[in-house]
Design goal:
221 residues; mainly alpha; 77% helix; 0% strand
Length: 221
């Protein structure tokens, strides 16, 4: 259900990017796009088609089960908006337990920041929660069953590892931020919260939470 809920956000992202910043790419989107380089200049089109097919399959699943799709989208958006506004203060308060100054880097709002915020919510959550966390959970659950340990322990491990990798992702590559332990801890804690939301509330809520947080950050710093 959560995959279908991101349809309005994805359409908004693609529309704004087309008209305001055609070359804008979120880092996670670029990474996914690079993995499709086998398709050459058509890689971006393949990614868009794959995204559309995934959303259509989710829509078909909702219709088949007679789930009210409008309510799914609205609840995911509203719930994600609430969590998104809470994510910064909560993560900042937790980070302050380790550092005296946990303020994020300030940045002025530009059109590419707006578009990047939407893209981060969609593609970073698709990569690190829907993809990586789900894969890690599958592996860790099997390990837990093999050693007769609670499966919940595997879920916790998957959330933790994906959160660490999510944070590290922001410090690698040519466009990555210089490593700063404060920001690494801040993003790891944010990743733990987003991972927990993914497990408990699903992909759609997680995406809207991330996007609303990023938008609020760029609008208020």
């Amino acid at each position: 259900m959560g995959v279908f809920a991101v349809l309005p956000l994805w359409l908004l992202y693609e529309g704004l990017r087309l008209f305001l910043a055609p070359e804008e790419r979120n880092g996670a989107e670029a990474l996914i796009n690079d993995s499709l380089r086998l398709f050459g200049p058509h890689a971006l089109s393949v990614l868009r088609v794959a995204m559309l097919i995934t959303i259509l399959l989710a829509a078909w699943s909702l219709l088949r089960r007679e789930v009210p799709w409008g309510r799914v989208v609205l609840v995911s958006l509203l719930e994600g908006a609430v969590y998104g506004l809470m994510l910064g203060p909560v993560t900042g308060a937790l980070t302050l337990q380790f550092f005296h100054d946990a303020r994020p880097l300030a940045a002025g709002l530009q059109s590419q920041d707006l578009i990047g915020s939407l893209g981060a919510g969609i593609f970073e959550e698709a990569l690190f929660r829907l993809g990586l966390l789900s894969l890690l959970a599958l592996v860790f659950h099997r390990v837990c069953r093999a050693f007769s340990m609670p499966v919940a322990l595997g879920s916790c491990a998957a959330v933790l590892v994906s959160a660490i990798l999510f944070s590290l992702f922001h410090h690698v590559g040519t466009g990555g931020d210089p490593f700063d332990l404060r920001f690494f801890v801040f993003r790891t804690l944010a990743g733990l919260i987003l991972g927990t939301l993914f497990v408990l509330r699903g992909f759609g809520v997680c995406v809207y939470t991330h996007s609303v947080y990023d938008l609020h950050y760029y609008l208020t710093t």
